[in-house]
Amino acid sequence: MASLSSLKTCSLYLIASLSPMALGQEIIETDNHRLEEVAEGIYFAVGNDTIYTMSNALIIERDNDVVVVDSHITPAAGRALRDSIRVVTDKPVTILINSHFHYDHANGVPAFGPDIEIIGHEVTYQKLTGDPANEKTYLSSLTRFDNTVNRLEQELEAATSNDERSELQQQLEFWRAHVAAQNEIVFTPPNTTLRETMTLYRGGREIQLHFLGRAHTGGDLVIYLPEEKIVFTGDMMLGGISYLGDGYVSEWADTLQALKQLDFDLILPGHGPGIRDLSRIDSVQAYYTDLTEEVRRLKALGYSAEETATRADLRKHADTLGVNQLGANLEAVQRMYDLMDGRSE
Ligand SMILES: [Zn+2]
């Protein structure tokens, strides 16, 4: 399945300098997930490539029920998560928390049924009740998945050995299943929202939800378990550079500064493995600060977004984040230009 994993690197997320890191807790392999029990009754759910999940989820068991954070990319992937939860507990899932509005974290919601409480930031509600099917980040993902299928079909046509053919066939089935799963998507907004903070005390567990400022989107929530010293950060804090196409890069470092005020020793990100090296936050903060300065500098010299994306020099982040090449992501620079010029908010 190594080649499926390598295909996943075509995802939006540039997770640099990461190697899988065991968290030292029990690992439960289900049909579709690797569940890491990061504290008693708390499981970090990572898809195992049998179905395309794209993002991580968190399962929090309470005395009589279960709270889930994020639901993967499609209802089919959400159902796979629901099935994996059944492996560790038969308590009902009563609350689903959305870390943010992005398709790969929120489109699995319908798998959890019509009666569930869905908690998200006010901005997540606005995005998912707005025109989610035409959000550019979602649309570009559909193009990317179609391109992957087309490329694999061509490669299959050109394949010269049986081994190669059967490997490509397997990959094609995986991605075709994911593309077909899009037909089932029903964008489902939160039915409970917050703007700043909320705490759930029920069931022997304190679960804090915090909006710490704009970063990856306008409404990122971090889910903080103070007793266990664990924080689930969605995509506002990954092990490397996040997707910036809906982001607020110039505000991001301040938001991460607010994250540091919480007392935790394990970060569970929306993509990639758990992070115990908290200096990662400093590295990512420094990159967003420098990217902001570099883009402002080049824009002031009159360069277009395309030119700036070619010229931006962030290579001083090579050691920490693997930025070895001159240039920055065009989508990110375009987004920053749009914000600076008032074309976006
Ligand atoms: Zn995201």
Write up what this structure looks like:
- The strands form two sheets. An eight-stranded mixed β-sheet has the order 1-2-3-4-5-6-7-8. Strands 9-10-11-12-13 form a five-stranded mixed β-sheet, with no helix packed on it.
- By secondary structure, it is of the alpha/beta class.
- The longest helix has 23 residues, at 136-158.
- α9 (305-311) packs across α11.
- The chain folds into three domains: 2-133 and 185-277, 4-Layer Sandwich (Metallo-beta-lactamase, Chain A); 134-170; 286-340, no CATH class.
- It is globular and about 60 Å long.
- It has eleven helices and 13 strands.
- β6, α3 (103-106) and β7 (117-121) form a beta-alpha-beta unit.
- 38% of the residues lie in helices and 17% in strands.
- It has helices at 2-8, 75-88, 103-106, 122-129, 136-158, 162-181, 249-260, 279-300, 305-311, 318-321, 330-340; strands at 27-29, 33-39, 42-47, 57-61, 66-69, 93-97, 117-121, 192-194, 197-200, 207-210, 222-225, 230-234, 266-269.
- Residues 100, 102, 216, 235, 243 line the site of zinc ion.
- Zinc ion binds next to loops.
